[in-house]
Amino acid sequence: MAAKPVLYYFDGRGKMESIRWLLAAAGVEFEEVFLETREQYEKLLQSGVLMFQQVPMVEIDGMKLVQTRAILNYIAGKYNLYGKDLKERALIDMYVGGTDDLMGFLLIFPFLSAEDKVKQCAFVVQKATSRYFPAYEKVLKDHGQDFLVGNRLSWADIHLLEAILMVEEKKSDALSGFPLLQAFKKRISSIPTIKKFLAPGSKRKPISDDKYVETVRRVLRMYYDVTPLCAKVWAMMGAADIMVCKALGTPTPLCPGIHFGGTCSQVAVVIMAVIVTEHRELRSMSGKPRLTYINGRGRMETIRWLLAAAGVEFEEIFLQTREQLLKLGQDGSLMFYELPLVEIDGMKLVQCRAILSYIAGKYNLYGKDLKERALIDMYVEGISDLMHLILMFPFSPPEAKEKNIATIAEKATERYFPVFEKVLKQHGQDFLVGNKFSRADVQLMEAILAVEEKVPSVLSGFPQLQAFKTKMSNMPTIKKFLQPGSPRKPPPDENYVATVMKIFKLD
């Protein structure tokens, strides 16, 4: 008999709760190890099982997986909750990504002051009822089926039910204007495995209380405060999961709204507005993928990298004015009002992870099986954490740039690059997973070059990564992308920053 999955986290919801939900919905029993002391956490760090020094961590099928999304992807795929093909999976990823944005607002709630909890409660309900629930009500109406994708239960349905119940904890009648979601909630709640998880005595965690907050702070030796400035960030973006991820896994002074002995700045407001914001439908007149974003790197650059590495030509539409942005929102055809947008294979995809996963799957850059894909996902999520620091940098005030470069160098050389140096050394192959080129290699190459732009000697202590960089740079499609005149964007300059400020009225 296969061993039960073992979950390592705090005795509370946090980022682990969605993993508990998914395992329970799949009918999988699991065990849990709760972190209660700093010593437990340090022991895990010293053992090397926390690849990026983060929890949650799940032991499953002989693997020790970190990075929440990698864990969820693996479980969904293993237990047939991830659609029947790439297109269904892309829709599931997109819906899950939107639900994650809403969940992010809820996950930070326990760490707020009493005064800010009142404000955040109103904010959560407003966002749920004006942006997220209307999107899913429309999906159910247009789809005409019992579930969000195809006509079978998927990870997207489970995640949405979890979010609905959490919003209802803040406002019991939050679904009053959404009859299809009311029926959806009743239907999904009645599925036997889910009904069992919702019953008293299950492993579902209650609303996080002061004891949970104190435990997190004690174990991670951090304090978590959200300033009023973050309300502006939240109002403009849907990626609060980044903040929670950093708070409960990868703390950094550059993370928006989180204080680790530092202060929150306008950097967070600007960069997160770029990362996730409002936009419109634009139709492609050819078979090429069409990318809609601002003329700069931001969250679109990794998508450009992956398409280019796959040898796929694409077209781009760049936003230049506030009026263009307003028209995007007025069209009302794009789920969650978010950028980047990629039109591909008849789909209009938002949510970066959904877009990247679809491209990787379509062009055979996602491993040969579920286990390889889990490793790729885990590496990619770690790389993404490092890239968040790079994405924020252009919007740093002049007096903070030197300090932020030092932070980037420190995180790269002490947390992220050592992991990949070790993977390449132990793996003994040319690529990170299996012996085949994957999206993990592409994204690591992008990150290496982005860090080197700030710290040219950053790879001096990493011979495996130096060889990896040389090898990757000579791959024909990547070599072409690195040449002048390619769609690769240069480092963001003052013009790019000014355009962002103008479009999103951030001055």
In words, what does this structure look like?
With 507 residues, the protein is an alpha/beta fold. Among the domains are: 105 residues, Glutathione S-transferase Yfyf (Class Pi), Chain A, domain 2, CATH 1.20.1050; 54 residues, no CATH class; 74 residues, Glutaredoxin (3-Layer(aba) Sandwich); 104 residues, Up-down Bundle (Glutathione S-transferase Yfyf (Class Pi), Chain A, domain 2), CATH 1.20.1050. It has 21 helices and eight strands. The strands form two sheets. Strands 2-1-3-4 form a four-stranded mixed sheet, with helices on one face. It has a four-stranded mixed sheet with strand order 6-5-7-8. Strand 7 and strand 8 form a beta hairpin. The longest helix is centred in the first third of the chain and has 30 residues. About 13% of the residues have low confidence.
Question: What count of helical segments does DSSP give?
Answer: 21
Under CATH, the topology of the domain at 86-190 is which?
Glutathione S-transferase Yfyf (Class Pi), Chain A, domain 2
Order of helices and strands: EHEHEEHHHHHHHHHHEHEHEEHHHHHHH
User: Briefly, what CATH class of the domain at 86-190?
Assistant: Mainly Alpha
Net shape: globular
Strand count, sense and closure of the main sheet?
A: 4 strands, mixed
Q: Indicate the percent of residues in helices.
A: 55-70%
Task: Give the N-terminus to C-terminus distance in angstroms.
Answer: 61 Å
- Decide which structural class fits the backbone: alpha/beta
Give the second-level CATH assignment, the architecture of the domain at 86-190: Up-down Bundle
- The neighbouring-strand order within the major sheet is 2-1-3-4
**What's the alpha carbon Rg, rounded to whole Å?**
22 Å
Uncertain residue segments: 223-286
| Secondary structure: number of strands | 8
Report the average pLDDT across residues: 85
Please report which band the strand proportion falls in: under 5%, 5-15%, 15-25%, 25-35%, 35-45% or over 45%. Answer: 5-15%
